[in-house]
Amino acid sequence: MGTNIFVLGLDELNHQALKKLPGAENYTFHQLLTFDELQGGSIAVNELLEEAERRLEDFDGSIDAIVGYWDFPVTAMVPILADRYGLPSANLKGIVTVEHKYWSRVEQQRVADEEVPGFGLIDLNDEEARLPEGVNYPAWIKPIKSTSSEGAYRVTDDAELQEAVAEEREVVDRMGGGFNEVLERLELPDEIAEIGGSAAMMEEEASGSMLTVEGFSYQGEVEVYGVIDSHTYEGTSNHACMVDLGLGREPQMPAQNGEFRTAATWFLRRFEDGYIKRVPTAEEVRAIEQKYPGTTIQIDKEADRPLSGDPAEDAYSFALAEIFTAGQSEEEMIETYEKVIEELNFEIEDL
């Protein structure tokens, strides 16, 4: 069976990408819990860990790596499970420090005070909640733990803030309860421990360029290998780093070996709710992918339902599809994306 790699939330799209990695013929990738199990409803990390451990114990073979590419709770579960089975992984406290939105800002402020927008905690139980000291409008209210901007609301005055606080009370516990279960596993600074996992914070609106920095940490050394919306780098998927690190190896990033010079992930969104009458069929998607080399499309919605209602989405848009395009130049890559979205046949009625 070769090397057994367990992937939390493994789906078909990413399974296909993993099977294309260099050396993948020596790996067997196993799904450990589904995405829906990990993200559906209120997240209970301890229950998810128990179920994951039960499935691992039932496996008749070696457990050589435990990895994951989804956001919380996967990011916290991987190091906990890896530690349980004596496997390499990132440090849980380090992960929690950067994923805890308030704690991360505290740490950033220590080293780059002038670059960090004003921020502070807000009491969701206060019927007359106001901006924390040092925070000015426009600002964002958000849970101290969320993903994909879930529970984030932009406010420009006190009236909007009151409306947003009411909304925040309804969503903060979906991830907050599970995040509490993770926090209880760590020794925390007093100012962080007293906050809990279901708190909310305010943050001044930031300005400037928005970049994604991609890299990895190996044996205490950090290496950055990509900046901006990077899906592949020099021909090797980010999954290659994940697998190497999960197996205790230093990732090796090849130079100029890719078929394309540039690639990106695009999120096709609609900014008003609607009722989905039709989505592109699997056959239509495959035809577009074959027409434009280097393109992969994942449809995120199904027909005969409203756009709204999915977890892990922001309050202002609805994801229709994830589209990966490539090209020999940025212009070619963008041109391919524009052609792809013209050919994707969604039918959505306004509500």
Report on the structure:
- This protein is of the alpha+beta class and 351 residues long.
- The chain folds into three domains: 3-90 and 212-246, 3-Layer(aba) Sandwich (Rossmann fold); 95-204, 2-Layer Sandwich (Dna Ligase, domain 1), CATH 3.30.1490; 262-350, Aldehyde Oxidoreductase, domain 3 (Alpha-Beta Complex).
- Helices cover 34% and strands 24% of the residues.
- It is built from twelve helices and 17 strands.
- The chain has helices spanning 12-18, 35-39, 45-58, 74-84, 92-99, 101-111, 158-171, 173-183, 190-193, 238-246, 282-291, 330-343, and strands at 3-8, 27-32, 65-68, 119-122, 139-143, 153-155, 200-204, 213-218, 221-227, 232-233, 236-237, 262-270, 274-278, 296-299, 305-306, 318-327, 347-350.
- The chain has a four-stranded antiparallel β-sheet with strand order 4-7-5-6, sandwiched between helices. Strands 2-1-3 form a three-stranded parallel β-sheet, sandwiched between helices.
- The radius of gyration is 21 Å and the shape is globular.
- The termini are far apart.
